[in-house]
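Please complete every field before forwarding. Incomplete forms are returned to the sender.

SECTION A: IDENTIFIERS
Entry label: holo-271
Bound molecule: fe (ii) ion
Molecule representation: SMILES string

SECTION B: INPUTS
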Amino acid sequence: MIDIHTHILPGVDDGSQDTGESLLMAEEAVAQGVQVMVATPHLRWEGAPLTASHIRQAVDEINELLQAKGISLQVLPGCEIPLSDELPERLASGEWMSLGDNGRTVLVEPPWHRWHTEHIAVLQRLVDADWTVVLAHPERHHVFQRNLPLLEELLAMGVHLQVTTGSLIAGRSNPASTRCAYQLLERQMVSLVASDCHNATSRQCDMGTARAILQRTCGRHIAQMLTEKVPAALLSGEKVELATIWQQNTVEPNRWMRFLRSILRRETDDG
Ligand SMILES: [Fe+2]
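SECTION C: PREDICTED COMPLEX
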C-alpha cells in the first residue's frame, strides 16, 4: 500500500519527535502492509515555514536510516499545506513542496474553523493551473460534517477527498468524524485513504486495519483502489476521475450505514 499522508519526519512538527519514534512508526507501517510513505509535515509549525529543500534533506536522512536498519519502507518527500491565498504562487515557484515532489499534485489542509468563499477561489486557481488537489481529512472538520453539499461542490471542481484510517476504525476517532467518513464512502465521494499518522501509539498508521474494513464493506477492488491504485496514480501525476474509482462498486448503500452503526455501538460499549 501507499500512504500519502504521514508525519514521520522527526522533529519538524507535531508528528514524530525523534528518529527513534520515526523508526517505530516505519516498523508499524510495514507490518500494516505499507511499502511507500509520503512524508507530509505541516508546512507551518512553530517558526519559519518548511522549505522544499529542507524536506528533501530530511527525507534523504530518514531513508538512509531505514536502509541501515533493514526496514523496507521508502519515504518520499511531500508536505501538508494549509489552504491560503499565497498557495498557488508558492507552489508554482517550487518554494513549497508538492506531493511526492512531483510538481503535479498537492495535499491541502482545509481550515479548521471558518470556511470562506475565498477558499473555493484558491482551490479553483490551483485546478485552473492544472494542479491535482487532494483535500486532507474533510471528515474531521465540523464545517464539512454539517455541510456535505459543500464537499460536492469541491468534487465538481475535480478536488479529491482523502479520508483518514483512524476515522474508519472503532475507538480511533470521535463519532462525528467516523459518521462523516462513512457517509462520504456511502456516497462514493472518497478518492483515497491515508493514515495522517503522527506517532506509533495513539495516531498510528493502521492502513492494513482500514483496508481490511474496506474489503469487508465494499470488496477487494475498491479497497485496493483507495489504498493502492489511486495513491500510486496521483503520485505519478496521472489524472484520476472519481467516477472511475467507484465504477465497479457493487455494494448496496445500506451496508455502509449498518457497518457505521456497528462501529459506533462498539465505541459506546467500550465506554
Ligand atoms: Fe496531517
